Amino acid sequence: MQSAAANGSGYKKDRTPAQGTQVKIGRFKILKVLGKGAQGVVYLAQDPNLGREVAIKTLDAYRNISLEKRERLIKEAKTVSKLKHPNVAPLYEAGSHGDRPYLVFEHIEGKPLKEILAKEKPLKVSRAVNLMIKILAGVGSAHKAGIIHKDLSPNNIMVEEDDTPRIMDFGISIMMNDAKSQSGQMAGTVNYMSPEHGVEGPLTPQADIFSLGVILFEMLTGRAAFSGQNAYAVLYQIAYETPPKPSSINSNVDDKLDRIVLKALEKAPENRYSSADDMKVDLEAWLKSDEDGHGLGGDPETNSAVEFILKRMRYKKDFPTFSSNVIEINKKASMAGNNMASAADLSRVILKDFSLTNKLLRLVNSAFYGQFAGKITTVSRAVVVLGFEEVRMAAASLMLFDHIQNKSQREDLKDASVKAFMSGMIAKEIGDSMQMKGVEEALVCAMLHNLGRHLAAFYLPDEYDEIKKRMIQKDLSEKHASKSILGVSFEELGMAVAKNWKFPDKIVQTLRTLPPGNVDRPKTPEEMLRNLANLSNEVCEAVSNSKGNDRKKILDGIARRYQKSVPLSTKKIEGLLHGAKDMIGKYANILGIDVQKSPFIKAIEDDGIATVVPAAEAVPGDLPAAPLAGAPLQEPSLSETQEQVSVLITGIQEITNAMLEEYKLNDMLFMVLETMYRGFGFQRVLFAVMNNTKTTMTARFGFGLDMDNLLKKFSFDVGAPNNPRDVFQLCVAQKKDIRIDDIKILHEKGKLPKWYIDAVLAPAFALYPVVVNNQCIGMFYMDREQPGVVIGGEHHNYIKTLRNQAVMAIRHSR
To answer: Does any domain span residue 669?
Structure first.
């Protein structure tokens, strides 16, 4: 263990005893030298009057100061000595020894935070936050007493064996303003200074807050927030550059903690926390969000159970598609904004899954989106009409339901999927009644709420059963039982996986269970989402675990608990259950639910709510017929021409209708491409455009296999019109349709360009030029995954019709 004073200000270790045994500073008997630094020497000494060991720091940098300043030092030291706080190393007294001032501190055994960081960087997130909360408490007490430290750093924060931090060197702050005013001098540890350290004038408490922000950043990331080859480079960064989010370095840090750190690091003092107490309150609130004190630090992500489940999801049969698709959809969402290319990206991901596409289109044409019934036959159109976020959330909810419902052999999990969807419907219905923006998010949040429990039951059935036994045998809560078996709670497990799936933080946070007691009015939309997710799931749990008068009492309690947040009467809650159950019945054929066999649905009916008989929902006549309820949705083969023709006809009709309205050119092209892709069953289809100089044709957007990579590589020189060298240049030069049923012969004759051989080399493909005013301004490309007729019979006419619609849209837009 090392002395606080010795290592609290960057002193080099020096355990050599002072020469002679009678050396004194004032009345204090020097025992040994603890350390040396730029400011002076730190000694371990004994106070003969009180018989205690103390640490004495001589301020060699301030020797020969005027008598007036020396007297002021001693006077102000008395003020500092009154500072009493468990996280502050007290200053006992100040004096002078010859021409050198000195300060006498409590001698504290511990390790400097700097040494701990060197060995353990980064610190565990919860530990870093707990340490900073205590440090802020000490600094806050000093600020209230009118004392500013001005030189906070990991060097002068000691951490005792019980992890209690003690702040050193408050007394030295007395001299800081004098040192700061000296020509060419700047007191303090450069890497932890605030921007205003370099500005003339006194420092405020916000300077300490900035330094604490830098320290917290380093504890969370293991890296300095500001660093450079010299002090001036560091000072420049502090003044003008913003450090990265801690979460970009340590994935165990979440967005909320990012915001706390970066607020403390604001360049302008007035934009930082107004006090150390305010920053402490935010960190405490962050910790409070997890009753076990782990915060949102993501430590569960390294848990073996979480790692096992994530690994199984990557490799288990039938599941990788779901996992990769939901991740890809969420990634696209983070890049969406108003960029229409992102709408194409979202459509492209959804279209990879035939079953998802089918269900989504049937859902958006149902009463669920009644105002659009009969109008939407392509995913691209759905994104345009409903909006990116609405379609994204609908797709996510369908994928989540499908995963739980269809991938499990456990009947309890299948029924859990019904309960999850019921929770989502209740949350959505409440959100609708409150005219909440982004109500689709409420549905997904409620469905995800018990994700961890579902994943454990599916992937870790033996451990899941043991958790249930332990809850009964040892009277443990589910949270503690799951932690005792898995080392992680179901809640933490679900959050870790949802984060891995790239759901945004505002959705991940809704997986957290609200603490007991009345729920306060939400201050943010994110808090409202969390409240709705918890409320709807508590209602469904009440249905599962109670009946009759007991259920009514529980529902009464839920109504009282959420009165401030979501004011609902018990009667209204029962009405929500009725409405949600009615909706489940309507969408049973879309979701594949057999409501007659669902114990959860029966539990609702036990209390007299009218039974809903599942009936196939009316689907607009211009859409392909839906499979019967519960029937598996099979991917079509090329021989299933009737369904393909239906998709083509309805797609062409929808494009025609859309062109009668106000539209954007990209919207029309997306719809044309998607109709081609779905209607003909191509492996890939894309649209390429000519550049302004009419020398190069480059892919713009498309659907199909590995499309992201293909869009980067599909670009070619159109060549001389009278001397085309390959099939692509020939298509542009002659403005004629080209269909290649087998590329072998073409390849042998050298009519395939090298860029195409390297990038694609599909067994069969077709090229359809887009000609406007006798100029080839674009091209549709489509291919098959095996040799054979690319487009035959009347299908060729459908392609030409779709191309003509694209040409009309282009002309209209000019």
So the answer is: yes
